[in-house]
Amino acid sequence: MMRKKGIIAAAVLVVSACIVIVYCWASGGDDAPEEAGAMRAVSEQRVRTVAGGAEGKSLIVYFSVPETDGVDASSGASRVISNGKVVGNTEYVASVIGKATGGDLFEIKTVHAYPASHQALIDAAKTEIDDNVRPELATHIENLKDYDVVFVGFPNWWYDMPMSLYSFFDEYDFCGKTIVPFCTHGGSRFSDAVKTIREMEQQATVLDGYAIARDRVPDSEEDILNWLKRIGM
Question: Given a cut of 70, is residue 74 above it in pLDDT?
């Protein structure tokens, strides 16, 4: 009788172990927090681990279209002067992150060129969103597997990510990676973009990210660096 009970107990242990293994495999890792707060905590811990590791290089992806009319470049409405060069707001933020983290920069570019003038650009963006267009990308990441942390930056267009970002997330599998969103905006912050990224990349850990108003971009370096410190980068 004792031997029979021992066999049953051993069988229960084996089944339990199998259930745990299958659960971890299905959830993409050993840490599978159940609550949103726990997920954010684990996310930040994972970033710290990667940043502090010998092989923890990050990738900073950005999409940026600096306008050429309608605003003074020094005002930071859609562009900023950095080292004597006019760059898009999001590109500038990406460059600060890249310099601070030592990560690699990657610019999302589309096959078709966006209009450079303000009104034409926002009209084109609205048409893409209304038609649910997925713009064809002209640049592609060949070594995504080399990165555990991927920053993804974009401007808020019509309370959403630009449609080129939808093309970007459609193209790559971020399973097991940590995605750190950042955006520039005119007052709407991320809108629902972070939620959308989490829905599109369910096997990735997506942090809450960093949103900065476009008129604050030229003087934002210190704030960006403080944010990077808070998330362990």
Answer: no
